[in-house]
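Methods — Computational structure assignment.
A single polypeptide chain was analysed. Its primary sequence is given first, followed by the predicted tertiary structure written as structure tokens.
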Amino acid sequence: MAVKKYNPTTSGRRKASVDDFSDITKKEPEKSLIVIRKKKSGRGMYGNITVRHKGGGADRFIRKIDFNQEKFDIPARVVSIEYDPNRKARIALLYYKDGEKRYIIAPVGLNVGDEILSSKNRTEIKPGNRMPLKEIPLGILVHNVELFPGTGGKIVRGAGSWAKLMAVEDGFARLRLPSSEIRKVPEMSMATIGQVSNIDAMHIRLGKAGRMRHLGVKPTVRGKAMNPVDHPHGGGEGHNPIGLKNPKTPWGKPALGVKTRKANKYSDKFIISRRKKKKDN
């Protein structure tokens, strides 16, 4: 994939960039592997807005992605590399020897015509093959990793992301995650070899509000631009500070940088080294 830029003919074009889709080999999705995406507009079961700034957006289908890949020891051939509007990574359409079709997240280096395999034993170390962490050599990059065996891939699934296998001991594998966190995962958890495709997705700039609306994101209003009745930051004339020691949410809770992780969470025992803190500007 490459990022395409346009001449700055308008204000929206000046800073915008788009994906050139040069790695896509098939435009239409497999009909048997899609379902209709129902829009909820950020509303809960009672119709109240539970997540703000959501609504609208372009119509799209949900591609049913196989995060488990539990068809063990059955070779699968890559038929196409496709675009998925619900994620930044590319997806690959697989045809298994028994005739079944499935979508998986496509890793870097996976091409049409390649044959991949998912197995509970060691297989060839190449992009797309899937096996337990204990069967993977140290230093190899992996993605779509299970947190617990048999639960399906839960982490390292975003475009361009990877985890590095650091060690395997005492029944656990140590992974260095994209956040720089080092975490223990059971050695029998499955992982796919390679780095997730579409590495350049992080460099795409939307450039204008209209493209955000196509993604289903509505405008966000600053709290300090509201009235006091609507937001703790509201009130005052002209450009004024928030008038508080720390920023707050519209409901008065601390915001921006406040830790939200529960104390003594069950997974603390699996985390060896926390992610690096952001540097203060």
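Note: Residues 3-201 form a domain with the OB fold (Dihydrolipoamide Acetyltransferase, E2P) fold (CATH 2.40.50.140).
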